[in-house]
């Protein structure tokens, strides 16, 4: 009996039954001091296909285990002393199938001093399973629409999936076996996708990051974790990410249209209520003004002029509000964009002149007509051109270009300025109502434009790369 008492000092347990109950879902066998089976967990009985009565008091050979318990224990203690993987045991179930298990042995003792040992067994992959897993891993890295990066303990890239290469702008053969720090050396450390801390066991779940690769911007959702061997040592780490760019922009669009709808409701409710009293104030103000003129009260007359201008400003603001809610008297018909442009060019040129900006309009012959309200289209192009001109405070060139896509049946009008561009942290907000960076701006210009263009099935996109901005208005044609 004492020949079996090797290794660490035993763990005192109340009763073998209670101990085995605690591990019912794992494969566990408890042997007594003679190396005979004293108890088995429910999971083990189910896998082996025996009842407890059939195994109790039997030697381990009943389960097809060829070595005696004493030898198994020696093998385990040796593995522990060498800090290597736990040894493997071969069991046979009642049908004769062989099951490979890695095992650990815990030395136990009941309060009355009786020794027991529990064998805890983990499943080990068979050769076939292993090769299947390897095949799966290979296909997974190639086909799966997920970014996967495997890192070793030296913080080098062991493998990278095709999708990760595409999104991060890397070539697999150029980065495998390279240190992460070298591969991403151009990226500031706090923007790095793979942080050295992941090797210290920092687990990341659903971490949202933005990644810019040349001109493409990706919204990624990232998970990372360490990989450990059976002995609990860190052997590497992995990073997995999903590309949620489309989802994010969809979410933002929904939020934006929600906000627009809400503002629209408020606007519709209040705009009329503001306009009516304004009309009477304006009327009486004009009467007052006339009286002041008659009485030669010059100063008072100037005051009324200022008040009238201010009332007009409020009126204009309210009109924009109303447009946001539901444009009134909209009349859709076939519109020739060239005619729209011709009508607004004098206004744009005048504004441009004031800012020292030159305007270039490249009309193309035979631009298809679009279905729209020409007055509203004028407003869109005026707003966009005005923004461009306002962005070029120290002069520049405003270019208006037309393009036709006969495959998609779309007309594209691009308004490009040579201004300072729109910073990344601002660009997501510019279409939001009331977002403005200008002292006297209302921040309604772009949201009104977007509303008008959306209503005719078109889109407005913005591209800005630090220098210069291009707004592209795309409108379908029949
Ligand atoms: N071409 C551009 N270049 C740089 N920034 C721009 C440009 N167009 C728009 N923006 C930015 O977008 C913001 C919102 O534009 P928007 O037209 O909606 O409002 P606004 O121009 O500020 O005010 P309003 O149009 O009512 O006078 C601007 O304040 C500016 O910061
Ligand atoms: Mg504007």
UniProtKB/TrEMBL annotation:
Give one Pfam family, short name only. Answer: HisKA
E.C. numbers? 2.7.13.3
Could you tell me the keywords of this UniProt record?
Answer: ATP-binding, Kinase, Nucleotide-binding, Phosphoprotein, Transferase, Two-component regulatory system
The keyword Signal is assigned to this record: no
Q: Which NCBIfam families does this entry report, sorted A to Z?
A: sensory_box
The record's annotation in InterPro entries points to: HATPase_C_sf, HATPase_dom, His_kinase_dom, HisK_dim/P_dom, HisK_dim/P_sf, PAS, PAS-like_dom_sf, Sig_transdc_His_kin-like_C
Write down what this protein is called. Answer: histidine kinase
- Source organism superkingdom: Bacteria
Q: What class of enzyme is it?
A: transferase
All residue ranges annotated as the Histidine kinase domain in the record: 269-478
**A GO molecular function for this record?**
ATP binding
Q: Which CDD domains match?
A: HisKA, PAS
Provide the taxonomic classification. Bacteria, Bacillati, Bacillota, Bacilli, Bacillales
Q: Which reaction does it catalyse?
A: ATP + protein L-histidine = ADP + protein N-phospho-L-histidine
PROSITE patterns per record? HIS_KIN (PS50109)
Question: Which Gene3D superfamilies has this protein been placed in?
Answer: 1.10.287.130, Histidine kinase-like ATPase, C-terminal domain, PAS domain
């Amino acid at each position: 009996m004492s020949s079996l008492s090797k290794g660490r000092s035993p763990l005192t347990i109340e009763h073998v039954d209670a101990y085995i109950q605690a591990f019912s879902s794992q494969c566990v066998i408890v042997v007594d001091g003679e190396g005979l089976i004293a108890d088995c967990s429910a999971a083990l009985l189910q896998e082996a296909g025996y009842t407890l009565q059939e195994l109790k008091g039997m030697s381990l050979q009943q389960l097809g285990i060829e070595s005696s318990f004493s030898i198994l224990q020696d093998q385990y203690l040796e593995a522990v002393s060498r800090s290597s993987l736990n040894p493997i045991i071969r069991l046979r179930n009642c049908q004769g199938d062989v099951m490979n298990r890695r095992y650990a042995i815990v030395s136990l003792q009941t309060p009355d001093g009786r020794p027991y040992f529990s064998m805890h067994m983990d499943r080990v992959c068979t050769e076939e399973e292993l090769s299947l897993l390897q095949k799966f891993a290979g296909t997974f890295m190639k086909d799966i629409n997920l970014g996967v990066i495997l890192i070793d303990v030296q913080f080098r890239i062991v493998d990278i999936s095709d999708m990760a290469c595409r999104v991060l702008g890397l070539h697999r053969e150029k980065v495998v076996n390279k240190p992460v720090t070298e591969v991403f050396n151009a990226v500031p450390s706090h923007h790095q996708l793979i942080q050295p801390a992941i090797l210290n066991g920092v687990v990341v779940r659903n971490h949202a990051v933005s990644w810019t690769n040349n001109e493409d911007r990706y919204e990624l959702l990232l998970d990372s974790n360490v990989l450990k061997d059976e002995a609990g040592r860190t052997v590497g780490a992995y990073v997995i990410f999903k590309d949620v760019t489309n989802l994010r922009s969809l979410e933002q669009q929904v939020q934006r249209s929600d906000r627009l709808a809400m503002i629209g409701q408020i606007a519709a409710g209040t705009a009329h209520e503001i306009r009516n009293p304004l009309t009477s104030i304006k009327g009486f103000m004009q009467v007052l003004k006339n009286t002041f003129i008659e009485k030669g009260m010059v100063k008072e007359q100037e005051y009324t002029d200022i008040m009238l201008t201010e009332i007009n400003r409020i009126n204009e603001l309210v009109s924009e509000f109303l447009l946001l809610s539901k444009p009134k008297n909209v009349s859709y018909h076939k519109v020739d964009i060239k005619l729209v442009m011709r009508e607004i060019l004098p206004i744009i040129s005048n504004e441009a002149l004031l800012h020292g900006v030159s305007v270039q309009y490249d009309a193309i012959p035979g631009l298809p007509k679009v279905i729209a309200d020409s007055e509203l289209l004028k407003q869109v192009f005026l707003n966009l051109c005005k923004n461009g001109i306002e962005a070029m405070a120290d002069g520049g060139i405003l270019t208006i270009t037309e393009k036709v896509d006969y495959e998609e049946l779309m007309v594209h009008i691009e308004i490009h300025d040579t201004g300072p561009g729109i910073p990344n942290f601002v660009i997501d907000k510019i279409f939001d109502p009331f977002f403005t960076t200008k002292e006297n701006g209302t921040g309604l210009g772009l949201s009104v434009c977007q509303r008008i263009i959306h209503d005719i099935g078109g889109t407005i996109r913005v591209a800005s790369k630090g220098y210069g901005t291009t707004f592209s208005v795309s409108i379908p044609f029949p």
